[in-house]
Amino acid sequence: QVQLVExxxxxxxxxxxxxxxxxxxxxxxxxxxxxxxxxxPGKQRELVAGIxxxxxxxxxxxxxxxxxxxxxxxxxxxxxxxxxxxxEATAVYYCRYKLxxxxxxxxxxxxxVSS
Length: 115
Description:
- By secondary structure, this protein is mostly beta strands.
- It has strands at residues 4-7, 10-12, 18-24, 33-39, 46-51, 57-59, 67-72, 77-82, 91-99, 102-105, 109-113.
């Protein structure tokens, strides 16, 4: 069983920045593919950014150039740096861990972009 703990959410003004963190338990983090997803009220959960075990990244088009996903395998942590935030980024953000048949989600952290 892998535990994922997200942090860093909160209220931020439009145009501001925020960094989310997700710490994973266990010793296999470096071999896992990690992702950040979000779910806004009344909408389906969507992939925001992903990073493979080898460091390859991918992003949804709406955040390209503004969001950056990264990982620190020594700390079992994946990050999502969010810049130039827009109100439509308001959502619960979830961390996901995938390794072979293991697939785990964090509890989510709320990000609200509002003035």
